[in-house]
Write a structure and sequence with these properties.
Chain lengths: 137, 417
């Protein structure tokens, strides 16, 4: 539950703030960026094959398991025991990269493949945060 | 209609959610301090690995079959449990979380649903989609039948994760394929006594006369029989009853022989029990305090003492003080202690406390409220009774702990681009 804190004041301590009546919940990044908070997890991008879609090495991916997957969605999938972030080509059954250096990968019956979720949001840290550092190492 | 939904081998399955490398491998999860196996995934079960076997006894077998071993990652399980419960809660008008991976549902305004089987699949699919946890769904006209249907949904051949008991034939089909002890509320002892009457299955039990069951086995079995026949006897408040005993116990990460270390561990257990007791508005009348070496040692040493409070209390200071009163009769120099604990074995309701003319209350609700709020806000252990000071030696041993995928930024899953 999100609560707007309103403090009870005891005693007279000058004038009441003229802004007091206008107090609202502060902005929350979660509220803005997570469509389905219960079904969302964060992951750390590792590699350069998605730079064409604005996902760089070290970016944080917001992975939504509820969001509908359509042709051309940026997805995270379990591909042969590894989490990968690619563009899905649902027509041809391909995993596409957003970089000239990586060829499309065909998903065959021999592969183990499950879609984990859709990446509609990712964010970049322009200065390394100590909290994430050991993850990047 | 009632429902019971629970996750299939929850702990082991949680380990697979954020680790794709082990999705197709057998996984077992160890208890506190990596002592015993407490959860096995279906693949590990197929290898015949029993639950609750000490880890050291089966270590080489696990290695030989490439079984993945994990310590209990409670932070991860708590997060996934909460997500799972959030999904389930959306599908009924009353929801009761029964344990970390089980919840009861009560449908009161759901006359519009004519196909419960299909509705069960809708819930299952939603939980899978949002959390990647497989659940079993059981529906029945009583809590006991919902529990039976849940059993069928996972354990009986021919069910695909959903089972519904809504008429005579489905009731007969499922109950006659369940043993007595599969029935909710029938434990091993009771099951043995009932089988002496020639009963074998849940259906046999359902066909007993409730009255004669009551005279032979008491009111609990009578109610079970009625519930198995579709007559609701158990209600919400009863399944959510306050615990009648509260324990905190654990084996040490490393053996302890030092007097002060043992006392600190017992005191810490005492304050955990005190906190849980306050959480359900109870007071402790009788406390059991125990310590032992390992049952696998020669000269197994075990000592347990009961302390009775003159007036029942929930005051951490008084409860920890009780440890000091009895400590000398528990401690023995030279013993390498392996396990210790504290249990509140007789509880009173704090709202209906019997006052004593000669013993004034030792409770201090204001202090305890402050103590609990500080620990809630700044993390458990922020304030402690001095004697309970933490020590690395008996901190939980979790040698095979998976990352905090959803609780620590430095441990979020890596995704290859």
């Amino acid at each position: 539950m999100k609560v707007i804190p309103v403090y009870i004041e005891a005693g007279i301590s000058g004038f009441e703030s003229p802004a007091a009546e206008y107090k609202e919940l502060n902005l929350s990044l979660e509220e803005l960026l997570l469509q389905h908070p219960n079904a969302t997890f964060f992951g750390l991008a590792n590699g350069r094959s998605m730079e064409g879609r604005g996902i760089f090495d070290g970016d944080v991916l917001v992975v939504d398991r509820v969001e509908h997957v359509s042709n051309g969605s940026v997805i995270v999938a379990n591909f042969n025991g590894c989490f990968v972030c690619k563009i899905i080509d649902t027509d041809k059954g391909l995993l596409l990269s957003a970089s000239d250096e990586n060829k499309p990968i065909a998903i065959t019956e021999a592969d183990s493949f499950q879609i984990e979720g859709v990446v509609n949001v990712s964010f970049r840290l322009h200065k390394k945060l100590p909290k994430l550092l050991s993850c990047l190492a | 209609m009632f429902g019971l939904i629970d996750a299939v081998s929850f702990y082991a399955r949680c380990e697979k959610v954020f680790d794709p490398t082990i999705r197709n491998k057998p996984v077992v999860v160890l208890t506190n301090n990596d002592g015993c196996i407490c959860a096995v995934c279906p693949m590990a079960r197929e290898l015949g690995i029993p639950k609750f076997i000490p880890y050291f006894k089966i270590k080489s077998f696990l290695a030989k079959h490439n079984v993945v071993v994990r310590s209990s990652n409670y932070e991860l399980y708590a997060d996934l449990s909460e997500r799972m419960m959030n999904v389930i809660a959306r599908y009924s008008d009353r929801h009761y979380v029964y344990s970390i991976d089980e919840s009861f549902l009560h449908f009161r305004n759901f006359a519009c649903i004519d196909d419960w089987h299909q509705y069960g699949h809708v819930i299952r699919k939603a939980v899978w989609c949002e959390t990647r946890l497989p659940v079993g769904v059981g529906f029945g006209s009583t809590l006991t039948l919902a529990k039976a249907a849940n059993h069928a949904s996972k354990k009986l051949a021919g069910f695909d994760g959903v089972a519904v008991i809504d008429d005579h034939s489905s009731r007969k089909e499922i109950l006659s394929r369940m043993t007595l002890t599969d029935v909710w509320g029938i434990g091993t002892k009771l099951g043995k006594r009932l089988s002496m009457l020639g009963l074998k299955t849940g259906w046999d039990l359902a066909n007993q006369s409730p009255k004669s069951m009551r005279s032979q086995f008491g009111v609990v079995v009578e109610r079970t029989v009625n519930e198995l026949n579709g007559m609701p006897c158990l209600n919400w408040d009863e399944i959510g009853q306050d615990k009648r005993e509260i324990f905190s116990t654990r084996s040490f990460g490393q053996r302890v022989s030092d007097e002060h270390a043992l006392k600190a561990a017992l005191s810490s257990h005492a304050s955990i029990v005190a906190k849980k007791v306050r959480g359900q508005q109870s007071l402790i009348k009788r406390l059991v305090i125990f310590a032992s070496s390992s049952p696998h040692d020669d000269n197994y040493y075990k000592k347990s003492v009961i302390y009775e409070f003159p007036v029942a209390t929930d005051n951490t200071l008084k409860i920890v003080a009780a440890i000091s009163y009895v400590f000398d009769s528990i401690y023995m120099p030279g013993i390498m202690f392996y396990r210790c604990g504290v249990g509140a074995v007789e509880l009173e309701n704090s709202q209906f406390q019997q006052q004593d003319m000669f013993n004034v209350t030792v409770n201090n609700p204001q202090l305890m409220k402050c103590y609990d709020s500080v620990n809630h806000r700044y993390g458990s252990g922020a304030i402690e009774v001095a004697v309970a000071e933490k020590n690395d030696k008996w901190a939980m041993r979790r040698n095979f702990l998976s990352p905090g995928y959803t609780s620590k930024w430095s441990e979020i899953p890596k995704i290859i681009c």
